[in-house]
Every structure is written in structure tokens, then in C-alpha cells.
Specification:
The complex is a heterotrimer of chains A (about 120), B (about 180) and C (about 475). Chain A is mainly α. Chain A is built from four helices and no strands. Chain B starts with a helix and ends in a 5-residue tail after the last helix. Classes of the chains: A mainly alpha (about 120), B mainly alpha (about 180), C mainly alpha (about 475). The interface between B and C is large, with 42 and 53 residues.
């Protein structure tokens, strides 16, 4: 049982982190807060990917005469791409939030919905 | 032991970033979260990723967040309309717990952390590790995969940045509406 | 050859902002040339695939699974054919329509984003690598968020934001799913995964990965309980973009779902090993009924069409999850037909807004007397949506019903009948108001200007055409399934 936990805790903690981020994305009403949650969510997924590429006793995947085992380089490559994608999403989201603040004067979801409802009733 | 400590620290920082109502401190905490993540990744030997995360995740993203906050509001307003909010939060936690347990269920028959014999390390990875030096002459395997074998992903990545750049320009310059 | 299908839109997206600095009008022409060129190449390659079989392209000459490959087979050639066609029509429509809706200073950047969206969806449709699929999903999504946020009203910003949040959750779920499957197999190439996966079907890792992949795509696809982003996104975006998204956005996700279900996994896994098929049929049936019911309750014309889309997406997923030949064929034909008819309807709804500033169904009173030709196009596309015989919508529903009977899911028949009646009711409501409603003021005829009328006419006339000459979609989809399931 102990071995089982030791061999998996890295994945479990990254899953716990993902869920904290996901909770922030779903439950928080503040628009910026949702994006903070989104960042945590995505970075934790990246941690999960990086964890799966680690090999016990491995060295960084760079050629070295003394190295016996290298860590798996593929997850690193995938995550390099994914990090950039995540930051781009954040940038677009924040640009939209700035516009929303300009037009609605608030960044709280419930208040914006109230404003939209009032407009529709008219 | 250090690794476990770092991971626990990550959880604490993540919780803090989500629960803090002052958005400015929340963003700073998020930046610290990224920095700790960088250390974790360095300890997992993912140096290239750690570089990128330190510059992009902890650096650029914090700057973007701060500039967005300077144009909007610093504080999160907590509206308390009692029952409705509670039910909403309860539903959200239910979704999150359910999703999390499905993910954890999936880990049960995963190969152990650091297992050399895991399928990830044996399917296509050996070709990159043992063949790419001879084929391309680049010492860093990550670079050779990024630039050659999966170079097309990198083109896609660049396109994503381009999209985001054009998107931000076209959105922030809107004067109509 | 097939690599140009994605490269031409990508290059033109780089070209539009640069040439836009010299002259604003170039944006439209570069985009139009791009759409025509891509469409021509796609017709050529589709024909080639139909005759000689799948075509593959290895990037950098690295053979899969080590490098990334593009695969054009029967299935995705049908999908990109319809996507490129809808894009061509939308570009034709956009010139006049965007003059009213977008600041002209920003027009070349707007076309740049449109081209990037086109690049993204074509990339999703043609790639043979699941991680590359994720990257292109993000390109398409980021540009879609931006396009929606360019709407006239401030609600469009909120619609775009909500889509961004839900879309990112979906894309991240896809990423998690790819991670789990990658961990179990160590490969990212679809064809290679199909060989490696069968021995791992009982692994919890693979099942979880499958669940998250499909869940993520369902969020992108807006299947009923996960549809909340769709109505506002379609309603508040510029008219051209509503039509473009309705015709291509969800369709490409549906394609990706078919690809994951039948090209990465096998029918055996989807139907026998996990209860995916049963759950999905149930969800689709709910989507069909609820989409039509909610459409009935809408006051805004575009919102009504958006909810009707949710019901129609139910048909597509129903055909996919029934997992037999006729049903899947019906599903592919429905992707094809629904693109045509929904684009036509959104074009016409955009035309009402352009000419009269009308958004609500109530304000359409007497419009049929002002714009009789336009309204007749609306009738054609609307009847096709209902699924009247001799229209395109009938053919796809017919194939799906046959598939349901083959699989002995008889409950499908009354549900489809009910939904057809409901859609007849909501289309009829529009017709009744527009033909018999008392209009106030002048009733002299003023049809849509040609650049708006022409694309709407082409797409609605094709709804009739493919209802009578059914060979093209039926043959193409038949060949698609032959290649997909290998017989």
C-alpha cells in the first residue's frame, strides 16, 4: 500500500492541482479569477506530462558521454508547445476582459448578467 | 523529500491564489506558483521546459495579468446572495470532485513514477534518444524533436502566438461598440 | 499536394495584415483568392482520394510515428470539401455585410483572423497526429473567440468570454486525454495508436483517456447539457461569423469525434467494451428534443437558429454513436447538409438585419411582402431543416432512421418524428409572421443586395439539389466509411 502511494503521489498531486484550478474556473464569479484558475489548471496538466517523462536515475535529455539513462524528451517537447498555447489563451482572455470592463464597468459575472437582463427587458 | 515538500507548497499556493480576494496578490501568488513549478521541473530534468516556464509562465504572464489589472479592478467583489451561491458552489465542487476521481481512477494501473519500462519510454522515445544525434547532429534531444521531428507542431505554436497577437491588437483597438 | 490545403490559408493570413497596410481593400481579395484556391485544391484531392484511396504527407520526411503526418482519406476529404465551400460562400457574403458591422480600419486584421480560423479547422480535419490535433484546435478556438468578440453589441464580449472558458476547459480535457493515452502507448500518431491500443483496451488509463478526449470534444461540439456557450456565441457575433461558425465550427468537432472513435479506437471498444454507445445515444436523443423545444421558446431569430443547431448536432452524434454503416453514413451526410442549410438560414437572418435592422421574430411582420425572393430561400432552407422529402435534410434523417432500425433502437423513430414536427412549428412561426403579419408603413419591394443574396441562394438551392440528386454526398460518404472501416 505504501509503495503504491509512493509510486503514484506525483500524479495524484498534479491531479489535485488541476482540480483546484478547475474549481477556480467554474465556481469563481470574478472574470480575472477564472483566468487565474485556468492558468493553474493548465500548468498542472503540464506537470502531469513532465512527471510521466521522468526515469529513475535518468539525466536531462542532452547528449553526455557519462550518461547511462536519459529522461524521456517527448513530453518536454509537447509541453514546450502547450505552454505557449496557454499563455496565448490567457492574453486573448485578458484582452476580452479589459473590453468587458470598458463596456460594462465591472468584472463580476453576476453584475454583468444583471445588466444584460435589464437591457433585454427594455 | 524536497520534491514532496515542493509539491505540497504548490498545492498551498494554488489554493491561496484561488481563494485570495485581492486580485493583485492573487496574481503575485500565481507567479510564485509558476516559479516553484519551474524548480519542480528542473528537478525532473526538464530544463528546457523550466526555462520557458520561468520566462513565459512566471514572467510574461504576470506582466500581462498586471497590465490587465491596471486597466480593470484590483479587488474581487464577493456578493453574498446566500442560498443560490451556496448551491452553485456545491454543484461546482461536485463536478470537480467527480472529474478528479475519474482522473485518479485512471492512475491506478499507471506505470510507477520513474519506471524505466513504462510504455512511454519504449515506444518511439528510443529512436529520438539513440538516433537523433547521428541523424541530425544536435546534442539536445528536445531541440532536435522540436525543430525537426515535430517541427510542424512548432509551426502551429508560432501560429497560435500570431493569432493571439493579432487578436489582442484588434480587440484592444476597438473604438466602436 | 495535400499540405497546401493548410499552407495556403496560413500564408494568406500572414499576407492580409501586411497588404492591409497598403490598401484596406486587399484583405477581401486575398481572402477570396485563398478561399478559391484552397477549394480548388480540395476538389482535386477529394477526387484523387475517391479514385486512388488515402493520401499521406510526412512533414520533414520523417516517417510516422516519429514525425507528424497529414492523412487525407474519404472521411476528411468530405469534411474539408464542405468546410472550404462554406468558407468561400462566407467570404463572398462578408464584403457587404462587414461594411456595416466592422470598423473599416480594422478590416484587414479581421480577415487575417478569419483566415487563421480557416487554417485551424482545416488543420484539425487533415492531421494524423493527436497532439497536432490539439494545437490546431487551439488555433481555431482562439480565432473563433476573437471573431465572436467583434460583434456589434456588448453582449458579444460576454458570449466570447464564456465560450473561451468552456472552450479552454474542453481543449484542456482533450490534452489530459491525449496525456493518458500517450502514457499507455507511448505514441501520438493515430494510425500507430490504432495498432497499439487493442491490447490495452482493458487498461483503466486508456479508458480514462478516452473519456476525457470525448468529453473535451463534446464540450467543443455543444452536445446538449454542455451547450451553454453556443446560443449566445452564434447570436451576438457578426452575421458572416454566425453563418461561418454554424456551418463549420461544430462540424469539425464532430469530425474529430468520429476520428477518435473509429480511427484511433475501434467499434468493438466503443460499443462492446465500454457503454459509450448507449450513453451517447441517450444524450443525443435528449439533445434532439431539447434543442427543438428551446428553439420554440426564443424571440430572437438568430438565437432560435442557434438552438435548432443544438438539436441538429444531436442528429449528428446520434448517427455517430449508433455505430453501424447506414447511421454513420447518415451522420456524415447530415454534417454536409446541415452545414448548407444552417449557413443559408444564418445568411438570410443576417440579410434581414442588414436591410431592416431586424433581430426579433416579432419584428418580421410582413417582411415576405417586402422581400419575397429572400423569404422563398428561407422557406427552402427551413423545409430542409424540418426534413421534408426532396430536400437534403430528408436524406440524412432517412439514413439515420435506417441505421437505428438496423441496431434495433426503435425509440429513435418517434423522437425524430417529434423533433421534425417541433422544427416545423418553429419554422412555421417565422413564416406565419412574415407572410400574414400586419406590417406598419411602406411595403415596396427591396430585396437583398446581390453580394448577400447570391451566397444565400447558392446554399439554399443546393439544399434542394442534394435532396433530389443524392449521389454526390451518398457516394462520398459511402466511400469514406469503406476506407474508415476497411472494407
Amino acid at each position: 500500500m505504501f509503495d503504491f502511494i509512493v509510486s503514484k503521489y506525483n500524479y495524484w498531486i498534479s491531479i489535485v492541482l488541476m482540480m483546484i484550478g478547475l474549481y477556480g474556473m467554474i465556481a469563481k464569479k470574478n472574470l480575472v479569477k477564472k483566468i487565474i484558475g485556468m492558468n493553474i489548471f493548465q500548468v498542472s496538466v503540464f506537470l502531469f506530462y513532465i512527471s510521466m517523462g521522468k526515469i529513475k536515475g535518468g539525466t536531462a535529455p542532452i547528449y553526455w558521454e557519462k550518461a547511462v539513462i536519459y529522461d524521456n524528451p517527448i513530453p518536454h517537447v509537447l509541453i514546450l508547445t502547450a505552454i505557449v498555447v496557454s499563455i496565448s489563451t490567457t492574453a486573448v482572455a485578458l484582452a476580452i476582459i479589459i473590453l468587458i470592463y470598458k463596456k460594462f464597468g465591472t468584472i463580476e459575472e453576476d453584475k454583468i448578467l444583471e445588466l444584460m437582463e435589464k437591457e433585454n427587458r427594455r | 523529500m524536497v520534491d514532496l515538500l515542493l509539491l505540497v507548497l504548490l498545492v498551498i499556493f494554488a489554493l491561496y491564489a484561488v481563494y485570495e480576494t485581492d486580485l493583485l496578490s492573487s496574481v503575485v501568488i500565481l507567479s510564485a506558483f509558476s516559479l516553484i513549478m519551474t524548480i519542480v521541473w528542473t528537478r525532473l530534468n526538464a530544463v528546457d521546459v523550466a526555462f520557458t516556464e520561468a520566462s513565459v509562465g512566471a514572467g510574461v504572464s504576470t506582466i500581462i495579468f498586471l497590465s490587465a489589472l491596471s486597466r480593470t479592478k484590483r479587488r474581487e467583489e464577493i456578493t453574498r446572495n446566500g442560498k443560490k451561491l451556496n448551491i452553485y458552489n456545491f454543484l461546482a465542487s461536485l463536478i470537480v470532485i467527480f472529474t478528479g476521481s475519474v482522473l485518479i481512477y485512471g492512475t491506478f494501473d499507471m506505470p510507477d513514477f520513474g519506471d524505466f519500462d513504462a510504455p512511454v519510454n519504449n515506444a518511439i522515445a528510443p529512436r529520438y534518444i539513440y538516433g537523433s544525434m547521428a541523424e541530425l547532429g544536435i546534442k539536445n534531444f528536445v531541440t532536435s524533436i522540436l525543430a525537426a521531428y515535430r517541427g510542424y507542431d512548432t509551426l502551429g505554436e508560432t501560429t497560435v502566438i500570431f493569432t493571439a497577437g493579432v487578436a489582442v491588437v484588434i480587440l484592444l483597438r476597438r473604438r466602436d461598440l | 499536394m495535400i499540405v497546401y490545403i493548410v499552407l495556403i490559408p496560413l500564408l494568406s493570413s500572414l499576407l492580409t495584415p501586411i497588404l492591409g497596410l497598403i490598401n484596406r481593400k486587399t484583405g477581401f481579395f486575398v481572402t477570396l483568392i485563398n478561399a478559391i484556391l484552397t477549394f480548388t485544391i480540395i476538389i482535386y484531392s477529394t477526387r484523387k482520394v475517391y479514385i486512388y484511396g488515402p493520401e499521406r504527407y510526412f512533414f520533414g520526411g520523417f516517417e510516422p510515428p516519429y514525425g507528424i503526418e497529414y492523412v487525407l482519406d474519404g472521411l476528411n476529404s468530405v469534411i474539408i470539401l464542405i468546410i472550404a465551400f462554406i468558407y468561400l460562400l462566407s467570404v463572398l457574403y462578408s464584403k457587404k455585410s462587414l461594411e456595416k458591422e466592422i470598423e473599416q480600419k480594422r478590416i484587414s486584421l479581421f480577415y487575417c483572423i478569419m483566415n487563421l480560423y480557416f487554417t485551424g479547422i482545416l488543420g484539425i480535419a487533415i492531421t494524423g497526429d493527436i497532439f497536432n490535433l490539439y494545437v490546431f484546435i487551439e488555433i481555431a478556438s482562439l480565432s473563433a473567440y476573437t471573431l465572436i468578440a467583434m460583434g456589434l453589441k456588448r453582449e458579444s464580449l460576454m458570449a466570447s468570454y464564456n465560450y473561451l472558458i468552456i472552450g479552454t476547459i474542453g481543449a484542456t480535457f482533450v490534452l489530459i486525454g491525449i496525456g493518458y493515452i500517450f502514457m499507455a502507448t507511448g505514441s501520438l500518431n493515430m494510425a500507430d495508436l490504432k495498432l497499439r491500443l487493442p491490447s490495452l483496451y482493458h487498461s483503466k488509463m486508456v479508458r480514462t483517456g478516452f473519456t476525457f478526449l470525448t468529453l473535451g470534444l463534446m464540450l467543443k461540439l455543444a452536445l446538449f447539457p454542455l451547450h451553454i456557450w453556443l446560443p449566445n456565441a452564434y447570436t451576438y457575433s457578426p452575421s458572416t461569423i454566425s453563418a461561418l461558425l454554424a456551418g463549420t465550427g461544430t462540424k469539425v468537432s464532430a469530425y474529430a469525434l468520429i476520428r477518435i472513435l473509429y480511427s484511433v479506437f475501434t467499434i468493438d471498444f466503443d460499443v462492446n467494451i465500454i457503454p459509450f454507445s448507449k450513453i451517447f445515444i441517450f444524450l443525443s436523443l435528449i439533445a434532439i428534443v431539447m434543442g427543438s423545444l428551446l428553439a420554440l421558446a426564443q424571440k430572437n431569430l438568430k438565437k432560435m437558429l442557434a438552438y435548432s443547431s443544438i438539436g441538429q448536432i444531436g442528429y449528428i452524434t446520434l448517427g455517430i454513436s449508433l455505430a453501424n454503416e447506414s447511421a454513420l453514413q447518415g451522420s456524415i451526410i447530415h454534417i454536409f447538409n446541415h452545414s448548407l442549410m444552417k449557413t443559408a438560414l444564418f445568411f438570410i437572418a443576417g440579410g434581414f438585419f442588414y436591410k431592416q435592422g431586424i433581430e426579433n421574430i416579432q419584428d418580421l411582420k410582413g417582411i415576405a411582402r417586402k422581400m419575397p425572393l429572400t423569404m422563398s430561400l428561407f422557406i427552402i432552407a427551413g423545409l430542409s431543416l424540418v426534413g421534408v422529402p426532396f430536400t437534403a435534410g430528408f436524406i440524412s434523417k432517412w439514413y439515420i432512421v435506417i441505421g437505428a432500425v438496423e441496431s434495433k433502437y426503435y425509440i429513435v423513430i418517434p423522437v425524430i418524428l417529434l423533433s421534425s414536427i417541433l422544427s416545423l412549428v418553429y419554422i412555421w412561426r417565422v413564416l406565419e409572421i412574415s407572410y400574414f403579419g400586419e406590417s406598419n408603413g411602406n411595403e415596396h419591394k427591396e430585396e437583398l443586395p446581390v453580394p448577400l443574396f447570391f451566397p444565400a441562394m447558392i446554399s439554399s438551392v443546393l439544399c434542394i439539389f442534394f435532396g433530389i440528386y443524392t449521389e454526390l454526398p451518398v457516394e462520398l460518404s459511402k466511400r469514406a466509411i469503406e476506407i474508415l472501416w476497411g472494407y
